[in-house]
Request: fold
Amino acid sequence: MPTLKTQKITAKSRREFLTKFGTVSALGLLTSTTAMPVTTPPLRIEAGPYLQNVHADAAAIMWVTNQPCFSWVEYGDGNYLHQKLFDYKNGLIQANNRINKIKLKGIKPGSTHKYRIVSTPILEVKGSQFHFGEPFVSPIYTFSTPKEQEDSFKMVVFNDHHEGPQTIPELLYRFAYKGNEKDFDLVVFNGDVFDNAESEKQLIEQFLRPCVDIFAKETPFLFVQGNHEVRGAFARNIPDYFSFVDEKFYHAFSRGPMRIIVLDGGEDKTDDNWEYKGLAAFDPYREEQREWLAAEINSEAYKNAPFRVVLIHIPPWHSGDWHGPIHCRKMFGDLLNKGKVDLLLSGHTHRYGTYPADSSHHFPIMIGGGPIAGNRTLIKVEANGQTLKAKMIRDDGEVVSELAIPKPKKG
Reply:
């Protein structure tokens, strides 16, 4: 991904930057026959910026515009935004696109970083000449990267708020702040944000904007796919709006003392269910994840982690006898036991509860509530080098479950 360095980015240097691209055929993604009418609507940022996949030396910054643009990020660690970064694929600089995903790499661990987004509408293309409109330049925002050896980590976990965007501010403001200070490093949405995934408008208005308005410009969130996200006309477009490790819904990453495993439980029905008209393949998808999980639990990052926490929307246990939970248990159950997982967090059932370790699952399982007031929950998880804690709070403020898991003894 190209990075351009300057002493200080100014409006003048930005114009010079655009003039450069307007006089050479660098944007090969746009063909000579591609042209946008000069009378385009005013440029708007429909959603964003929002942070994804933040680690010690990397972060993804995303946003969505209302029309195709050439976009980039300006960022830096000190008083100035010294660097520009834009995306490219297969040698072509990304332009004429609306969904922007700019990945910062090699940034300084344990530091505060400043950034802003810039999007410039493309008014017309004639041969190799590109004519740009006035750029949108956002305010400057900040975010922090964790230290390479992070002593502690905190996350809050939503699940099953099912097109109730008011749940996000209500539960965060009540339970995830201490005064004006946030008490979390990451916000997790553990599936079923929607009833069905029908449109970009729905995704933006019911999910992305509420996150951006409250925290996501400066604190990352993690989207875990639920079974309702795989339904609807827009289901196959959802991955475009998020960033993950390896850009897969199932993945693993380390934060503080935790190794966090994210699994995609898929749908709860069989692949041949009449609703899918032959277009579902969740059984082979879970088989693919099993192969990956077997390798993950043997990785050094996993083995060396003081605590292992699993996020999966459909709990493989305590969620009935539908095909999805049964197949999740068949695919993942023995490996999670073998991997000595410390805690599994789920949703799906709309019945909050905590289930202690037993002969079937050798670790506690915490399942969050549902979308109805009086049954909504927020799970707060934190760990230091000695203890992993999880607290489930109902929307009326009652702590309905609490765990304190000591660091396992070696050997």
User: Anything to note?
Assistant: The chain has two domains: 3-144, 153-406.
